[in-house]
Amino acid sequence: MALCFLHSSFTLLLLLSCFSASLFLCNAYFPLKHRHQHHPRFASHNYRDALTKSILFFEGQRSGRLPRSQRVTWRRDSGLSDGAAANVDLVGGYYDAGDNVKFGFPMAFTTTMLSWSVIEFGGLLKGELGHAKDAIRWATDYLLKATAHPDTIYVQVGDAYKDHSCWERPEDMDTPRSVYKIDRSNPGSDVAGETAAALAAASLVFRRSDPSYSKLLVMRAIRVFQFADKYRGSYSNGLKNVVCPFYCSFSGYQDELLWGAAWLHKATKNPTFLYYIEVNGQTLGAAEYDNTFGWDNKHAGARILLSKSFLVQNVQSLHDYKGHADNFICSVIPGASSAQYTPGGLLFKMSDANMQYVTSTSFLLVTYAKYLTSARRFVDCGGTPITPSRLRSIAKKQVDYLLGDNPLRMSYMVGYGPRYPQRVHHRGSSLPSVASHPAKIQCSSGFSFMNSQSPNPNILVGAIVGGPDQHDRFPDQRSDYEQSEPCTYMNAPLVGTLAYLAHSFGQL
Q1: Is residue 378 part of a domain?
Q2: Which part of the chain is the Glycoside hydrolase family domain (predicted)?
Q3: Which one, 88, 90, 195, 328, has least CB within 10 Å?
């Protein structure tokens, strides 16, 4: 099939077959560079602008001492004594959402997905690659601090209940910066496995540009994974009163062990991790039909990642992951019995922060399409062939909905397009900046701003909010955290998808 588009009678015959029931064969086998006709000639959105903003968002979420290069200028230093309560340095990292707590579990997942975005599509990021790496390094510098002591991971800074009883800027926060950890007697294989995945994935990002930092990351990842595997248990058990209901580990820790091993296999090429996956894969839930991918549940992501080893590297022992990955893909195809979409066409998994599933699923679609194209394969959904271009088309439609192609004609990315959420559930964004209001805003005083109908004074550019409900409705109310709160793990997978789309339409 490499002879496609040569002037031969065979090629003409094959081209004509594309208009018959054999369309999937042409899509599966013609090289990607010859198949631009499967995309519209015009882009309905400025994906490059959205990409720039999706990465800029992370600067608005930074904790710690901000660098001179800080572009979100309404933010200031915060949390400069974090870790002092436990005599450790835990300054830095990210606030996960609209509050002032640093939760290690979603922060690690955010890091993994930002890294995966760069690993797969970094070559397309062009001028944004440096900013993407900065966003990753802001997280990994913190994760290195959190894992500095063997068999111990500091997994949270801040008392979430007390933090949530205030509405104050991170620069003003005076709620307890309590420190919580997991260790041998109080294990947390879920958060430890995800942290190992994050460090391993990030090591690939920095392998060429900073080899010594990359080596530090991968060595720490190995140590953290060994701890996760040896001392098994869910961090929600020992820290239930601290992490629940905020970031309870509902899916258990098996998925994170498989996910962590998969990333270490990719980062190290050490046969030990391949053997671990071969021996433990089934017991860790690799074959389960669990089709949600997000900060808590990594099953689908692990299947897609491991399928690459079979599809692209021809690791035969991982053959089954192609089937497992296909099952996930088939479950999200519009019209599939298990796929739920809003009337306007948005993938809908749950009412609380649904957009995280939209961005993570879209990323898996374009990434799996990349693997399938390399292997000249397609997905078989009950006898119906699904081509890589179809997967990209589904992902594009989801991103286009997010950026404004929806019944409300509203972009769910703050600062993108003519109409976007004005009352984002985010303390720093909703309160006057330190520059405009230098005096401290006390804990309870901030609620007058939270309850106000006024637009947020500081635009949290690039933030993806939770999004509309299952009927495409979005009230744009600050109090409605389920729909109006941004989260780092919503943006992280979108970075890769936007890079792909911007490149596809010649915007990069």
Answers
A1: yes
A2: 47-498
A3: 88
